[in-house]
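pasting for the record
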Amino acid sequence: MKPERAIGELTGQDVVDLRRLAGGDTAAAFVARLADGQEVFAKSSPGMPGAAEAEAAGLRWLAEPGAVPVPEVRGGDSEWLVIEHVPESAPSQRAAEELGAGLARLHAAGAPAFGAAPPGGPADAWIGLAPMRNEPVEDWPTFYADHRVAPYARRARDEGALDSATAQLLDQVCGELDRIVPEEPPARLHGDLWSGNVHWSGGRAWLIDPAAHGGHRETDLAMLHLFGCPHLDRVIAAYQEVAPLAEGWRERIGLHQLFPLLVHTVLFGGGYASQVARAARSALRA
């Protein structure tokens, strides 16, 4: 279906202007101006069943506590997602501090279980171009080992992107998760919180492109550390003021980064394998 028609049907308005955006690795993306003058952002996800539904459910779930700005979902179906358009602006220290405090409140809003999908969201979701299974599990170590580390480690090894020594390191880490990670209740996670999914606009930091699920709150913060984030020190300081992290959280950053690093290894090849090995070794030292 052509973008104009899809956006028009999902919003109930005529599209009077449409421009395609460059970049992005998962979908065709557009900004459309509607007949009422409002602008919306729309993207399609062909070949990724459930992706649009999962993202829409995730955005609504993250918006529910009112803790961090999240674009409003304006419409969606099996292929298309239409949301509020949020024009980009420069990051600021104040916005970073508000983000940190807001993330603490968002995580505290909780989830029904580790691995729980957002209400109305499919169990089979996506993180970038990689499929991701959300399966409710009673404890975080079992969830992380069985549904985040093992499937991607197995695929990376089978495809020759991960050597047997690193695979054995990952098995060892999974066997020691109970020792390494302090027990906490399920947090409401963004789930793919790298710097590109923190969208700075109008003096605020917005959350976009979630892979939302119930998980350990340190995971979102570890993702922010993976590829950097403007004013990250202020984000963390503000988070700590609202909800202090358990002792030793910095030493566990590598552990929580194993999942996104394995996803990158699966998607982009063995260039990330050395980072996986370093993260695994750091996890075992935590």
